[in-house]
Automatic annotation (TrEMBL):
Domain of life, per lineage: Bacteria
Pfam families reported in the protein's UniProt record: Cytochrom_D1, TIG
Stored InterPro entries: Filamin/ABP280_repeat-like (IPR017868), Haem_d1_sf (IPR011048), Host-pathogen_enzymatic-act (IPR051200), Ig-like_fold (IPR013783), Ig_E-set (IPR014756), IPT_dom (IPR002909), WD40/YVTN_repeat-like_dom_sf (IPR015943), YVTN_b-propeller_repeat (IPR011964)
Alphabetical list of SMART domains matching this protein: IPT
Protein name: IPT/TIG domain-containing protein
Species of provenance: Streptomyces violaceus (Streptomyces venezuelae)
C-alpha cells in the first residue's frame, strides 16, 4: 500500500485564517501507531481502525468518540472492511500475508486466512458472501468464501493491484493497479478481468459511488482523481487535487467526494455534479482514509502521522466562501423537509433544493464566522457554521522562473488570505498544492505538465474568497554551452574561463566536476568563471545551472611541469 512515518499526536486543526473556532464535533481520537484503514459498522455505532505501526485494531464507539477496545493483530494491519450484517470486520495483515476476521460481538480475531505477503485492501460483496483482497507483490486478487473462511479463487491482476472496490450490485470489482497506471475490472460471476482502463499516474485507491455509476480513483503520481463511468468503463473526467492524495470516499447521498491529501494535511471536497474541488479543509496530520457515518453528517479520517482519528462534520459543505455571497452550499441533516428559511447568521439564504435529509442553498453576503440555521414547521435548528473568506492577494513568488518542461522544484507564493486555496495556475498549467497557510503557498509543477514554449505567464490563486492575480512566472528554455575557452588549466585552479552558449543570463551556479566556481554572467550568451583547484588532472564536466535547467561542457586539468 503506502508507508507513512508516524509522529506524536496533534489535535484536529481549526481554520487557519484568523478564526479560532474549531470544527463542529471535531473530536481527535488517539488510537494506535500509524492508523491507515478505517471502516464503520453498517449502523455507524463503531469504527474499526487498522494501526499499521502498532499491529493493532482500535475499536471506536462513535457515540462517545472513544476507543473501547484494542485488538492485537499480525504484522502490518492495513485496511478494514465490515460485513453487511455488522457481525464481522475483515483486516488485511500486510506483512503477515493474512486476512484476519474479527467477531464484532467479542472484538476478537476468530480466523486468519493466508492470502500472501503484501495483502493490501479488502472489500466485501453486498451480500457478504465473498471478500476480495489485493495482494500487490503477487499481482493477484484473492477471493475468500466468508462462510468457510477459505480462498476459493486467485485472480491474476498484473500491474501492482492495490485499491479495490465492489459495485453496489456486486457484479464487478474495480482494482487500482499502481505500476501499470490502470484500473482492472473483474467480473465477479467469472472472477476474470474483463477490462483495463488507463487512468493517471500511480493510481493507489478507489471508491464506487453509492449508485454504482462512477468510480473515483486517486492518482498519487500526478495528484489527480480520475472519474470512471461504469457503464462504458471510460474516464470521463480528471480532477486536480492537492499533493499525495490517498483514499476518496463519496458521501452517502453521492453529492460530494472527499479526498484525503496527505502532504498539505487537508481533506479536499469534490462536487460530483461538476467534478470540481469546492473546498480544501485543514485537517489532522497525514490524513489517509475517510469513512462516512450512514446518515452522511460526519466522516471519520485516519491521521497517519498523528496517530489519531479525526471526526469531520459534513453538515455544511462547503462551509467557507466569498464575503460577496453566491457560494452553493449543501446542508445535510434530519427533518429538513419543507424548510421555510435558511439563515447564515441573520442573513437569509436562497433555497434551491430541499428533501427530508438535505438542502441546497445559495449563501448570502456576509463576514466572519456565522451559524447556519434551518427553520421548518418543527422549529429552528443549527446545522453548523459558515466561514466567510476575504479576497486573497499575492505579494511574491520564488523562484519566479523554471524550465519549459516543468520540474519538481518547490515554488513558494506569498500573500494574504491564502488559506483554503483550491487551485493554483501558472498560465494554463495547474500547479499541485503542497503546503498552505494564510500567508504562503508551496506548489510544484509536475514534470509532465510544463509550458508549450518559453515566456512569461500569469499566476492565479483561487480560494473560497475569490481569485488573486498580479504575479508572473517565466518559463525558460534549457541553457546550452557550446564552448569552454580555454579548455585547459592547471590543477591549482585560477584559470579564467569563458563559457559561451545560450540561455545563460539566469545562471545561478557553475561547477567544475561538482565543485562550485566563482562566476559572473556577462550576457545571455556568455558567462565567465574561475576554475577551482582539482585534486587530480584530467577532463571534468563543467555544469551551468539555472531555472531553465542545466548545460554542460568540458575542461581539462593538467599538472604543472616539474623535474
Amino acid at each position: 500500500m503506502f508507508t507513512l512515518t508516524s509522529s506524536s499526536p496533534q489535535p484536529v486543526q481549526a481554520r487557519g485564517f484568523g478564526f479560532s473556532a474549531a470544527f463542529a464535533a471535531g473530536a481527535s481520537i488517539p488510537v494506535g501507531d500509524m492508523p491507515q484503514g478505517i471502516a464503520l459498522t453498517p449502523d455507524g455505532a463503531r469504527a474499526y481502525v487498522a494501526n499499521r505501526g502498532s499491529d493493532t485494531v482500535s475499536v471506536i464507539d462513535t457515540v462517545t468518540d472513544t476507543v473501547i477496545a484494542t485488538i492485537p493483530t499480525g504484522a502490518g494491519p492495513t485496511f478494514v472492511a465490515t460485513s453487511p450484517d455488522g457481525t464481522r470486520a475483515y483486516v488485511t495483515i500486510n506483512d503477515g500475508g493474512l486476512l484476519s476476521v474479527i467477531d464484532t460481538a467479542t472484538n476478537t480475531i476468530v480466523a486468519n486466512i493466508a492470502v500472501g505477503a503484501g495483502a493490501t485492501v479488502v472489500a466485501l460483496t453486498p451480500d457478504g458472501t465473498r471478500a476480495y483482497v489485493t495482494v500487490q507483490p503477487a499481482d493477484t486478487v484473492s477471493v475468500i468464501d466468508t462462510a468457510t473462511n477459505t480462498v476459493t479463487v486467485t485472480i491474476p491482476v498484473p500491474g501492482g493491484p492495490n485499491g479495490l472496490a465492489i459495485t453496489p450490485d456486486g457484479t464487478r470489482a474495480y482494482v487500482a493497479c499502481l505500476s501499470s497506471h490502470t484500473v482492472s475490472v473483474i467480473d465477479t460471476a467469472t472472477n476474470t478481468v474483463t477490462a483495463t482502463i488507463g487512468v493517471g499516474l500511480v493510481p493507489i485507491l478507489l471508491t464506487v459511488t453509492p449508485d454504482g455509476t462512477r468510480v473515483y480513483v486517486t492518482n498519487v503520481g500526478n495528484s489527480t482523481v480520475s472519474v470512471i463511468d461504469t457503464a462504458t468503463n471510460t474516464v470521463t473526467a480528471t480532477v486536480g487535487v492537492s499533493a499525495q492524495p490517498r483514499f476518496t470516499a463519496v458521501s452517502p447521498d453521492g453529492s460530494h467526494a472527499y479526498v484525503a491529501n496527505a502532504e498539505p494535511d487537508t481533506v479536499g471536497v469534490i462536487d460530483t455534479a461538476t467534478n470540481t474541488v469546492v473546498e480544501n479543509i485543514d485537517f489532522g496530520d497525514g490524513p489517509t482514509v475517510v469513512a462516512f457515518t450512514p446518515d452522511g453528517t460526519h466522516a471519520y479520517v485516519t491521521n497517519t502521522d498523528a496517530d489519531t482519528v479525526g471526526v469531520l462534520a459534513t453538515t455544511v459543505i462547503p462551509d467557507q466562501g466569498s464575503t460577496a455571497g453566491g457560494t452553493t452550499v449543501t446542508l445535510t441533516g434530519r427533518h429538513l423537509a419543507n424548510a421555510t428559511a435558511v439563515r447564515f447568521g441573520t442573513a437569509r439564504a436562497v433555497i434551491t433544493a430541499n428533501t427530508a435529509t438535505s438542502l441546497t442553498v445559495t449563501a448570502p453576503a456576509g463576514s466572519g464566522v456565522v451559524p447556519v440555521t434551518v427553520t421548518t414547521a418543527g422549529g429552528t435548528g443549527t446545522l453548523g457554521h459558515f466561514y466567510y473568506r476575504p479576497v486573497p492577494a499575492l505579494t511574491g513568488i520564488s523562484p519566479a522562473a523554471g524550465p519549459v518542461a516543468g520540474s519538481d522544484q518547490a515554488i513558494v507564493i506569498t500573500g494574504r488570505n491564502l488559506a483554503g486555496a483550491l487551485d493554483v495556475y501558472l498560465g494554463p498549467t495547474r500547479a499541485v498544492i503542497q503546503q498552505v497557510s494564510d500567508t504562503q503557498l508551496t506548489v510544484r509543477i509536475p514534470p509532465d505538465a510544463g509550458a508549450s514554449g518559453p515566456g512569461g505567464v500569469a499566476v492565479t490563486v483561487i480560494t473560497p474568497g475569490g481569485s488573486a492575480h498580479g504575479l508572473s512566472y517565466a518559463y525558460l528554455s534549457p541553457p546550452t554551452v557550446t564552448s569552454v575557452d580555454p579548455g585547459t588549466g592547471p590543477v591549482t585552479g585560477g584559470t579564467q574561463v569563458t563559457l559561451t552558449g545560450t540561455g545563460l543570463a539566469a545562471a545561478d551556479q557553475v561547477t567544475f566536476n561538482g565543485t562550485p566556481a566563482t562566476f559572473a554572467v556577462i550576457s545571455d550568451t556568455t558567462v565567465t568563471a574561475t576554475s577551482p583547484p582539482s585534486g587530480t588532472e584530467g577532463s571534468v564536466t563543467v555544469t551551468v545551472t539555472g531555472p531553465g535547467g542545466t548545460a554542460t561542457g568540458s575542461f581539462t586539468y593538467v599538472s604543472e611541469p616539474n623535474v
